Amino acid sequence: MESASVSSQAARLVVLVSGSGTNLQALLDAVADEGYGARIVAVGADRDGIEGLDRAERAGVPTFVERIPDHPAREAWDLALAARIAEYRPDLVVCAGFMKILGAPTLTAFPVLNTHPALLPSFPGAHGVRDALAHGVRVTGCTVMLADAGVDTGPIVAQEAVRVYDGDDEHTLHERIKAVERGLLVETVGRMAREGWTVTGRTVRIGRPRDPGRPDAARPRAV
Ligand code: GRF
Predict the structure, then answer these.
(1) Nearest protein CA to atom 3 of ligand 1, as residue
(2) Mean pLDDT for the stretch of residues 24-39
(3) Ligand 1 within 6 A of 141 CB?
């Protein structure tokens, strides 16, 4: 079992974005409340000129951009991104619409949370909403999960369902999913920051380990 525990300090979040950043905005709004238990210490992106970076700048949060084309190979980008993130000493990295797969340098250094607009393990990948519609499902939704080396394959932390309406297209359905996704992400990040979490196999539980004194229980990591 791997576990993370809470300290009295607000957890330090680095949020990664690639687009409009409405999930980031929901987190920026949530951390304005001291009782939320987390603060955003930096926002990173894989591209310039996106609304997500503007949102961070308007909120006075430091930003950084690490673009893949600026590096000779993907591995070099992975290392550079992990180094930029590490400068901010995050307790948790949150991918909020970050459209790149993170490599080992980031995944081994920090716990990473991701959000996806479908009910995993159905419809992973960059077109989760389109693929769900094409399949004809009547219920889809959103998933918040810990990131691993695969594409949307990490242990699931939280999910919420969204109905598909007759006449939905990718845009209308995605917008309805995102409205739910923002709330789920804010709630999940806040609970993880305040209560810690444990991972046993693929099962994630938010809250303190039931019996931390047991010899097989991992030592809680400070968050
Ligand atoms: C979200 O639905 C996220 O799950 C997906 O892209 C969307 C990002 O939206 N990967 P935003 O940039 O937070 O508005």
Answers:
(1) 97
(2) 97
(3) no
